[in-house]
Design brief:
The chain is about 65% helix and about 15% strand. It is of the alpha+beta class. The strands form two sheets. A three-stranded antiparallel beta sheet has the order 1-2-3, with no helix packed on it. α1 (about 40-75) packs parallel to α3.
Length: about 180
């Protein structure tokens, strides 16, 4: 994307309206023959970019801690002989859901929220796009939290069962 001083400098000769947004049309200097008003300068975006970087770092830190906690929970739930198989399956499922399904979900959302396609690329998303991305991301986090809580509950129930079984075995051995 190139920033021009004015629509005249971009060689624009018409104005279109796309989803309530004014778009300059028939621009001879612009590569896609369209331009929008008000490019984001470095100064105006600096605060938003720093906030994005901070949130991104926090999310990665939280994700790393979550993977470590999930791994220790999963390892406690199985017999020692099955731990290596479980770690392999867990890694495969994480990769499958993260890199395949997650990617496809967000690509589909980007396509559904696009209001200006040109050259098989989306050049302008609707105003709902950031909200739909945020809602989807939060839904995935809530789903992961529910799965983690369910795993913890199942582990606790298995530990109680093992303790009762061990106690019954001890009682049975003391009676014989």
């Amino acid at each position: 994307m190139t920033t021009y001083l004015s629509p005249c400098h971009a060689g624009c000769s018409g104005i279109d309206e796309v989803d309530g947004l004014q778009v300059y049309a028939n621009c001879t200097c612009a590569s896609f023959r369209r331009a929008t008003q008000g490019a984001c300068s470095g100064n105006a975006c600096e605060g938003a970019f720093q906030m994005h970087q901070m949130m991104y770092t926090l999310i990665f830190t939280f994700a790393g801690l979550s993977f470590q906690a999930q791994g220790s929970l999963v390892l406690r739930a199985v017999e020692p002989r099955d731990k290596s198989v479980l770690l392999g399956l867990t890694g495969a499922f994480i990769a499958l859901f993260t890199f395949v399904f997650g990617h496809l979900i967000f690509i589909g959302m980007s396509g559904m929220n696009c209001i200006w396609w040109e050259g098989s690329r989306c050049h302008l998303h609707s105003k709902q796009h950031p909200y739909s991305i945020a809602i989807t991301s939060c839904s995935m986090v809530v789903l992961a939290f529910i799965i983690t809580i369910t795993t913890i509950v199942c582990i606790k129930m298995a530990e109680r069962r093992r303790a009762r079984t061990a106690q019954i075995e001890l009682i049975g051995q003391s009676n014989t």
